[in-house]
Amino acid sequence: VAAPRQAAPARVAAAARMQQAPRLQPAAFRASGKGGGHWVVQLGAYDNAAIAKEKWFSMARRNSMLANLPVVTSQIAVNGATLARLAVGGFDERAEAVALCRAIQARRGQCFVRENVADATPQRWALATRGRQFAGR
Known about the structure:
Layout: H1 9-20, H2 27-32, E1 39-46, H3 49-62, H4 64-67, E2 71-78, E3 81-91, H5 94-106, E4 112-115, E5 121-123
Antiparallel strand pairs: 1-3, 1-4, 2-3, 2-5
């Protein structure tokens, strides 16, 4: 009788992180229901807001922990071009934002932590769930 195979320690550790990561919910988001907070996790910067929104939907479909966090958008000028920054926010503590960014990076995503900016706009974008359609007027 063959002995049962044991999972590699790295896979066990990664699985444990993945099970914990979706529970991240910033304190400011829990308390206010808004996307405020001093720290954000930037997910990218795009040519315009429509592309940023499309990218967020793509990321949130692949990574459920993002779908539950408030989206924060802002603009930045780089070398004469204006870019739409895409981030998730609501983090009062930098350590919370860093933990989320590390979880995203563990899933081969890209991000970095930065301070929120005064002109940032909280967004409420919802993913449609399978089998359900939502109408808006």
